[in-house]
Design goal:
- One of its GO terms (cellular component) is plasma membrane.
- It is a multi-pass membrane protein.
- Keywords: Cell membrane, Membrane, Protein transport, Transmembrane, Transmembrane helix, Transport.
- Helix 4 runs parallel beside helix 6 and helix 4 runs parallel beside helix 9.
- It is rod-shaped, with a radius of gyration of 27 Å.
- A two-stranded antiparallel ribbon has the order 1-2.
- It has one domain.
- By secondary structure, the protein is mostly helical.
- 84% of the residues lie in helices and 2% in strands.
- A hairpin with a 2-residue loop joins strand 1 and strand 2.
Length: 201
């Protein structure tokens, strides 16, 4: 592997750094963006049960807020449980916006790497082409320099694409996952609002 990096020349090192960063972010997001962690299955039922029992205390709201991202949204609803429907929905939307921002963390960086990696590979290709043209002079062609220039061009192009393709796949996957989480949380929060306001009638 070291021999490949040496053959690819110095332009490969920024690509290597990008690949390490992308791998770390993908692993971190895979661990963080789990449905059971973000949207626990029984949480809405538990919150409805607490609301109907009338046992809503600041401690319970704080515990709910720390439990999960859905807990953050539902705790905003619980804080405004005696407010009109519009106020409740507005507080849920504000909490949902903050949660969505949290879920999208690092996705911009991942998308940037997916876009930038092929360009970095192309830059390495240009460096290799410059070496290839530099291998030819009045006295003839330097075979070693020519071979090195070809290696730099091809390795960097290939490595740039090899980083970009999986990174782009994971970026799209995480974007879709976050969107589905946000929609799911909004639906569950609206269900809770309906429970609260139907019980008042």
């Amino acid at each position: 592997m070291l021999a490949i990096f040496q053959a690819a020349g110095w332009p490969i090192w920024p690509l290597l750094i990008a690949s390490v960063v992308a791998t770390a972010l993908i692993i971190e997001r895979l661990m963080y963006l789990r449905r059971t962690r973000i949207i626990p299955k029984t949480l809405l039922d538990e919150v409805v049960r607490v609301y109907r029992s009338g046992n809503i205390t600041p401690d319970i709201i704080e515990k709910l807020e720390k439990s999960s991202q859905l807990g953050v949204v539902l705790s905003a609803a619980l804080r405004n449980v005696n407010a009109p429907r519009d106020v409740m929905k507005e507080s849920i939307e504000e909490a949902g916006g903050a949660v969505a921002h949290q879920l999208e963390r690092f996705l911009t960086t991942l998308g940037t790497i997916a876009t930038l990696a092929p360009l970095m590979g192309l830059f390495g290709t240009v460096v290799g082409m410059i070496e290839i043209f530099g291998a030819t002079n009045a006295s003839g062609t330097n075979p070693a320099q020519l071979a090195h220039g070809i290696s730099v061009a091809l390795y960097n192009t290939g490595f740039g694409l090899a980083i970009a393709m999986p990174t782009l796949v994971f970026y799209r996957h995480f974007r879709a996952l976050v969107d589905s989480f946000v929609i799911d949380m909004e639906q569950q929060a609206v269900k809770f609002v309906d429970v609260v306001h139907n019980s008042r009638k």
